[in-house]
C-alpha cells in the first residue's frame, strides 16, 4: 500500500488485466508522436547507460525518498544541483504521462496495436517470471535496438486505459486498522490506533486500492474461447453418490431451487438459472512476504476463484481475480464493503455483451463459498473462534477449562477430564449438535432483542458469537456450510507440526505423563539426516528441497510438512517409537489425508472417512 500523493506528483501505477484481441494497428499520427517522445526518453537512457547505470523509469509514487530520486535522476546528466535533478525526474514522468493522456483522451485511441501487444507480453513476462525491476529495465535497454518496450509505469497506464479498469482509492488508516467506509466514513481519527486520517494540510495519509470486479466480470464474455471454458459449470453432470467438484455439494444443489434474495427482497429468478451465471469463492488469507520470518511484513490479498472454469485451470494465476491487498486489519468488514456492494449489483444483473452470441444480456455472479485460515474465517463468520466457550463453526460442542491449573483457555476433548468443577458430560462424536444457517439467524435475533449489555455479552459468549457475518447482502451464502475447513491449514500449519513437537517433547512444555511417545534427540538427528538425503532421489516437480527437520525446521512450509508426513515419515519413523501404537496412530492420519486429497470420492467413502477421523481422535485421547 502507498501513501497518498500530492497533486504535484505523478499518479501511482495501478493494476489491470487485459484480454488483447486481434485488431487494426494504431494510426500513423500516434506512431509519429510516440517516436518523438521516445527520442526524448531514449537520449536520457543512452547517457545514463554510457556511464554504466541502468534506467529506473518507474512510478515516482513508489516509496522512495527525495534523496533516492535525486541519485537516480543525477545519472542522466551533470545536473547542477539536487533540485534540478528532481525536476528532471518529474519532467520525464510527465512526458510519459502526457503521451498516455494524449493517446487515450485526445485521439480516442483505444485500439490494441502491435506495440501494445509487445508491452503486454513484456509485462506478463515480468509478472509471471518474477523478474525484478532492475533486470526488467536492463532487458529493455539491452534490446532497445530490436524492440521498443515502455517503462513498467507507462505500460500499466496504457493497459489500464485499454482494459477500462480503474482502481478505486478508499481512505484507510495509516496502519490499515480500518477503511473509512460504512460507519467509519465520517471519522477523522482511527477508532483503534487513534492515528489521524489526514495530514495537517488535509491530505489523506493512506489509501486502499480496490480493483473493481464488475469490469472484469464483463470481460469474461469478450473472448469466445474463454466463454466456452466458462460453460463448465452448466455442463457439469451431478451424480448424487459421487463428489468431484463444488457443484456436487449440497449447498450448491439447494441454491438451484432457491430464489435470489438481495437486501431482503426476493427476486423473480433462481440462482444459476442462466447457463452463463458465474459461481465464485472468496479467499482471504495472509502470507509472509519474506520467506518464513514470523514477525516480518504480512500481506492479505483479497482473491476470488472462478468455479465456472474447469478445476485444472481455475487456480492458475491468470485465472485468479485479485481485488486488493491489505495488511492485518482490525475491522475486515470495512475493507470488504466495496466487494459487498458489487456482489449485490452482480446478483441483480450487470448488462454485458456476449461476443459468442453477439447480444447483450444480464450477467449474474454469486459467491457461494468463503475460504481462509481459522482466524480469517472467524472474522468473516463473526464467531468467537477457537478460544471461545463454543469454538466450533460447524457444531455446538462446549469447551472445558483445566480449572486445577488456573487456565482460562477452552479446549474441546470428547471425554471430559475427571477433575473437580467439570460438569460438562462427555461428547458422542456421532451425535453432535450441528449448527445450521437458520440457527445462526435465530441466535442473532435473540441477541439483538436483548437490551441489557451485560446479558447480551453473556449470550454471545454462550453461543460463541461476536457479530453478524460479513458479506451478507446476497442470500447465496449459507452460514453453516459455506465456510469449509481449509486442508492445508488444518494439517500443514497445525496438526502435523504439533505432532512433531509432541513427539520431540517441545509441545507447550507438556510431559509424557503415563505415555511413552517421545523420540530421543539422537534418533531425531538420524531422522533429520535421512530426510535431507531422501530429497536427492525425489523429482523437484513433487516437492521443493526438504531441509533437515531438526536443524532447519523454520524453513518448512505447510506444503513441505504435508509431503514429509505423507511420503517420508512412514519410512523414517518406522521402528523409532518405543510403542508401535504411536506409529499406527500416525499411519491412520496419513490415510485420512490421502482420502481427502482424492479427485473423486463416493458418499460411502465419506462415511468411512468420518469413522476414521473419530477413531483417530479417540486413539489420541486414549
Question: Can you give a write-up of this model?
Answer:
This protein is α+β, with helices and mostly antiparallel strands. The protein has four domains: 28-166, no CATH class; 211-371, no CATH class; 383-466, no CATH class; 487-621, no CATH class. Helix content is 39%, strand content 10%. It contains 19 helices and 13 strands. It has helices at residues 28-50, 66-73, 82-106, 114-128, 133-142, 152-163, 214-219, 224-229, 232-235, 250-255, 332-348, 374-381, 437-448, 453-463, 487-503, 521-534, 558-572, 580-596, 603-621; strands at residues 168-171, 207-210, 242-243, 259-262, 265-270, 278-284, 287-288, 298-306, 320-326, 350-354, 359-363, 365-372, 601-602. The strands form five sheets. Strands 6, 7, 8, 9 and 12 form a five-stranded mixed beta sheet that branches. Strands 1-2 form a two-stranded antiparallel ribbon. Strands 3-13 form a two-stranded antiparallel ribbon. α15 packs across α17 and α18 (580-596) runs antiparallel to α19. It is globular and about 80 Å long. Residues 1-80 have low confidence and may be disordered.
Number of strands: 13
Instruction: Figure out the total of helices.
Output: 19
Distance between the termini: 50 Å
Q: Mind describing the biggest β-sheet? A: 5 strands, mixed
User: Which bin fits the share of residues in helices?
Assistant: 25-40%
Estimated share of beta-strand residues: 5-15%
Structural class: alpha+beta
Molecular shape:
globular
Low-confidence stretches: 1-80
Query: What is the rounded Rg?
Result: 29 Å
Amino acid at each position: 500500500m502507498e501513501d497518498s500523493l500530492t497533486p504535484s506528483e505523478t499518479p501511482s501505477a495501478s493494476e489491470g488485466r487485459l484480454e488483447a484481441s486481434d485488431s487494426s494497428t494504431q494510426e500513423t499520427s500516434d506512431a509519429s508522436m510516440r517516436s518523438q517522445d521516445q527520442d526524448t526518453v531514449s537520449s536520457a537512457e543512452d547517457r545514463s547507460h554510457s556511464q554504466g547505470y541502468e534506467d529506473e523509469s518507474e512510478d515516482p509514487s513508489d516509496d522512495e525518498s527525495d534523496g533516492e530520486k535525486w541519485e537516480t535522476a543525477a545519472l542522466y546528466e551533470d545536473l547542477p544541483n539536487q533540485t534540478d535533478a528532481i525536476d528532471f525526474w518529474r519532467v520525464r514522468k510527465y512526458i510519459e504521462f502526457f503521451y498516455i493522456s494524449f493517446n487515450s483522451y485526445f485521439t480516442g485511441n483505444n485500439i490494441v496495436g502491435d506495440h501494445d501487444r509487445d508491452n503486454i507480453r513484456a509485462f506478463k513476462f515480468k509478472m509471471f517470471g518474477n523478474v525484478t525491476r532492475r533486470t526488467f529495465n536492463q532487458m529493455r535497454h539491452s534490446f532497445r535496438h530490436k524492440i521498443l518496450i515502455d517503462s513498467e509505469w507507462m505500460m500499466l497506464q496504457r493497459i489500464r486505459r485499454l482494459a477500462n479498469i480503474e482502481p478505486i482509492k478508499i481512505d484507510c488508516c495509516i496502519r490499515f486498522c480500518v477503511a473509512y467506509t460504512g460507519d467509519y466514513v465520517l471519522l477523522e481519527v482511527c477508532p483503534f490506533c487513534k492515528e489521524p486520517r489526514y495530514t495537517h494540510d488535509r491530505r489523506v495519509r493512506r489509501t486502499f486500492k480496490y480493483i473493481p470486479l464488475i469490469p472484469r466480470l464483463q470481460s469474461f464474455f469478450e473472448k469466445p474461447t474463454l466463454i466456452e471454458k466458462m460453460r463448465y459449470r452448466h455442463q457439469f453432470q451431478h451424480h448424487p453418490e459421487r463428489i468431484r467438484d463444488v457443484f456436487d455439494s449440497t449447498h450448491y444443489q439447494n441454491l438451484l431451487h432457491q430464489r435470489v434474495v438481495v437486501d431482503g427482497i426476493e427476486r423473480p429468478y433462481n440462482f444459476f438459472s442462466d447457463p452463463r451465471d458465474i459461481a465464485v469463492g472468496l479467499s482471504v488469507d495472509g502470507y509472509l512476504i519474506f520467506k518464513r520470518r514470523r514477525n516480518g511484513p504480512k500481506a492479505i490479498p483479497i482473491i476470488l476463484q472462478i468455479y465456472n472454469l474447469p478445476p485444472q485451470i481455475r487456480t492458475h494465476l491468470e485465472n485468479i481475480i485479485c481485488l486488493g491487498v491489505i495488511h492485518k486489519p482490525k475491522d475486515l468488514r470495512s475493507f470488504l464493503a466495496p466487494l459487498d456492494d458489487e456482489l449485490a449489483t452482480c446478483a441483480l444483473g450487470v448488462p454485458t455483451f456476449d461476443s459468442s452470441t453477439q447480444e447483450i444480456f444480464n450477467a449474474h455472479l454469486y459467491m457461494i463459498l468463503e475460504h481462509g485460515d481459522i482466524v480469517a474465517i472467524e472474522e468473516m463468520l463473526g464467531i468467537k473462534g477457537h478460544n471461545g466457550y463454543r469454538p466450533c463453526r460447524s457444531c455446538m460442542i462446549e469447551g472445558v477449562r483445566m480449572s486445577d491449573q488456573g487456565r482460562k483457555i477452552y479446549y474441546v476433548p470428547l471425554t471430559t477430564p475427571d477433575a473437580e468443577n467439570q460438569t460438562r458430560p462427555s461428547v458422542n462424536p456421532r451425535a453432535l449438535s450441528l449448527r445450521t444457517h437458520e440457527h445462526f439467524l435465530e441466535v442473532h435475533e435473540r441477541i439483538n432483542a436483548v437490551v441489557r449489555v451485560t446479558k447480551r455479552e453473556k449470550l454471545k459468549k454462550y453461543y460463541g458469537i461476536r457479530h453478524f457475518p460479513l458479506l451478507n447482502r446476497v442470500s447465496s451464502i449459507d452460514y453453516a456450510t459455506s465456510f469449509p475447513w481449509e486442508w492445508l491449514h488444518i494439517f500443514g500449519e497445525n496438526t502435523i507440526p504439533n505432532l512433531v513437537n509432541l513427539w520431540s517433547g517441545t509441545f507447550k512444555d507438556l510431559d509424557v505423563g503415563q505415555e511413552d511417545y517421545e523420540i530421543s534427540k539422537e534418533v531425531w538427528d538420524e531422522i533429520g539426516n535421512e530426510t535431507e538425503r531422501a530429497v536427492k532421489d525425489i523429482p523437484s516437480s513433487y516437492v521443493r528441497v526438504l531441509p533437515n527437520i531438526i536443524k532447519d525446521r523454520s524453513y518448512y512450509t505447510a506444503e513441505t510438512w504435508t509431503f514429509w508426513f505423507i511420503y517420508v515419515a512412514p519410512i523414517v519413523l518406522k521402528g523409532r517409537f518405543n510403542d508401535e501404537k504411536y506409529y499406527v496412530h500416525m499411519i491412520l492420519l496419513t490415510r485420512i489425508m490421502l482420502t481427502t486429497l482424492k479427485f473423486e470420492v463416493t458418499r460411502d467413502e465419506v462415511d468411512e472417512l468420518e469413522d476414521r477421523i473419530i477413531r483417530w481422535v479417540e486413539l489420541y485421547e486414549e
